[in-house]
Specification:
Number of helices: 5
Oligomer: single chain
Order of helices and strands: HHEHHEEH
Helix content: 40-55%
Number of strands: 3
Largest sheet: 3 strands, antiparallel
Distance between the termini: 25 Å
Shape: elongated
Strand content: 15-25%
């Protein structure tokens, strides 16, 4: 769970996830949306992959990134449970 929150802590990584809500995108399409170096973008992609929030598919020389919503849902549900969300008052 910590790796997910660490990945979500950076605004660029949150923006990448927002862009991927609309469907898979190439690494180049994502990188073009930000004014940072390619190594910096690679670091952001690596952090998101490490957390399990995105998956990368190699298609020839192109890498396609897509959301892995099941991990995000699992972490959010776990977090809500740890915080007592969903429990009735007095339980």
């Amino acid at each position: 769970m910590n790796s997910v929150f660490e990945a979500l802590a950076h605004p660029t990584r949150r923006a990448i996830l927002e862009m991927l809500k609309g469907g898979s995108k190439t690494a180049g399409e994502l990188a073009d949306a930000f004014q940072v170096s390619k190594p910096t973008m690679s670091g952001h992609f690596a952090k998101l992959k490490e957390a399990g929030l995105i998956q990368a598919d190699q298609r020839g020389a192109t890498i396609m990134y897509s959301l892995n919503l099941s991990v995000l849902e699992e972490v959010l549900l776990g977090f809500m449970g740890a915080m007592g969300a969903g429990k009735e008052a007095g339980e």
